[in-house]
Predict the structure of Cell division protein FtsQ.
Amino acid sequence: MSRVNKPTLCAPRDLRARTAERARNATQKATEKANRRRSWPRWTEKAMRLGLIAFPILLAGGAGAWAYQTGWFGTMADRTTAALIDLTVDAGLEVQEVLVEGRVETDRNAVMAAIQVKRGDPILRFDPEAARAGLERLRWVATATVERRLPDTVFVKLDERRPMALWQRDGKLALIDRDGEVLTERELGRYNNLLQIIGADAPKHAPELLGHLATVPALFERVNAASRVGGRRWDLHLANGVVVRLPESDIGGALKHLAEQELKQPVLDRDIVAVDLRLPDRLVIQTSATAAQRRRVPEEKI
């Protein structure tokens, strides 16, 4: 048999030309692209990537800052809180009772005005701290405690100021406590049992004097008033008109000396004008034949 040779397959000339042209075009484009990349600094690509990531973050942050500065967050929070509190009323969390403990002198209406609450108010909206501050601005209130007692009660405990003395100033009397706070200038007849003090600085020094007088109760009950002399010491004015002149220092020792003398040999009921206790080792008694006729309430006595 005769051998048959397979024909050699070859691409037409125009096909090879087109393929070569495509390859040259692709190479040229790749070269141009590489050249463009080399024309920018190496860090620009990273910067652009970071910019794409940071832009949304900065945008969100700016929106948040705007909302904060314009009060949008606060307004929305307040509205949400108010809506939630209103819902608690339906659950029974509303003020139905106000319990006040320790109120003796403080006016009831003044208490209610200070705590600013009324029946039916949402109890969670009530501010105990603001109520406490309002109560402690009242004259008679030294300290106050305010609590919310769920579901429906506001509890108030008052620690009222304690009257100490009647203070004469500018020809008028005022009731004061141990801190010198003026409590009232009206209806003072209820406090006639208190010591009357005279002098601009009398309230400051009165607690010390009262402390010493409390150690000699028999003498204390005879004292009607006490006046400051020269801002340095006290004169006591007894009910029978006798004046007891106290020293600047060691008031307690001088009063005890007088009290002991009264037990041994009473002098305060004699026909005398004054007893001077300013000398530490003796009593100086001022008397005269006409002392009984001249005995009167001192000019500074109330």
User: Anything to note?
Assistant: The two ends are 163 Å apart (CA to CA). The CA atoms of residues 174 and 185 lie 5 Å apart.
